[in-house]
Specification:
Blueprint lengths: L10 E5 L6 H9 L5 E3 L3 E2 L14 E2 L2 H9 L3 E8 L2 E6 H9 L3 E6 L1 H11 L3 E7 L3 H11 L4 H14 L8 E4 L3 H17 L1
Parallel strand pairs: 1-7, 1-8, 2-7, 3-4, 8-9
Antiparallel strand pairs: 3-6, 5-6
Length: 194
C-alpha cells in the first residue's frame, strides 16, 4: 500500500434483515486479517445488556441525535422505529480512512441503500439473506433480546426489507455460517484489491 496521502478508502456495506447473521459475519470479516475497520454507528436506543458506548454504538439521547442531524454530522441516518434513530457519523469514516483502512458498515437495509448512493463505486453493498423467514424468526426467539411483540414487528419489517434485495451489489445466503464466512471474505478481498 502507498502512503496515507495516496490512500483511497473503500466502503463495505453489509445489510440484512434482523436475525440474518450479519453481525456474526462482520465479526468474522474483522478477524480475517483484511485491512478493514468497523464503523461504529450512532443510535438513540438504550444499550442492550453487554453493549458498550463507543465500542458497539455511540449511544445518544433522542435530543442529541436530532442536534447531530441539524449539524449535518451524518452521512446517513434513519428513524428505524419511532424515536429510534440510527446513523453514520462523518467523523467516524474520516478517522478510519486516516488509519489507512477500509470501512465496514453493519447497517439496516435502507441505511445500506443510502450509504451505497453516498459512496457510489467506492463501495460494495452486500445483502445477507437468511435461509427463510421461519429460520429468521427462530433465530430472533433464540437470541432472547426481544419480547414477542418486538419479534413480530421485526419479522414484518424483515419481509419488507427482503423486497430491496435487488438494490445490492452482492447477495450472500447465510444458511451455513462457515460457507457464508468464506464467501463474504472472498467478495470483500476481491473488492478492496480492485
Amino acid at each position: 500500500m502507498s502512503s496515507l496521502s495516496d490512500f483511497t478508502g473503500k466502503a463495505i456495506i453489509i445489510s440484512a434483515p434482523s436475525g440474518a447473521g450479519k453481525t456474526t459475519l462482520v465479526k468474522r470479516l474483522l478477524e480475517s486479517g483484511l485491512p478493514v475497520k468497523f464503523s461504529i454507528s450512532a443510535c438513540s436506543r438504550k444499550p442492550r445488556k453487554d453493549e458498550i458506548n463507543g465500542k458497539d454504538y455511540y449511544f445518544l439521547t433522542i435530543a442529541e441525535f436530532k442536534t447531530q442531524i441539524q449539524n449535518n454530522s451524518f452521512i446517513e441516518w434513519e428513524e428505524v422505529y419511532e424515536n429510534n434513530f440510527y446513523g453514520t457519523l462523518k467523523s467516524e469514516i474520516d478517522g478510519i480512512w486516516n488509519m489507512g483502512k477500509h470501512v465496514i458498515f453493519d447497517v439496516d437495509v435502507l441505511g445500506g441503500i443510502s450509504l451505497k448512493k453516498y459512496f457510489g463505486k467506492n463501495a460494495i453493498s452486500i445483502f445477507i439473506k437468511p435461509p427463510s423467514l421461519k429460520t429468521l424468526s427462530e433465530r430472533l426467539v433464540k437470541r432472547n433480546t426481544d419480547n414477542k411483540e418486538s419479534i413480530s414487528s421485526r419479522i414484518a419489517k424483515s419481509k419488507k426489507e427482503m423486497e430491496y434485495i435487488d438494490k445490492f451489489d452482492c447477495i450472500i445466503k447465510n444458511d451455513e455460517l462457515n460457507n457464508a464466512t468464506k464467501n463474504i471474505i472472498g467478495v470483500v478481498e476481491k473488492f478492496i484489491l480492485m
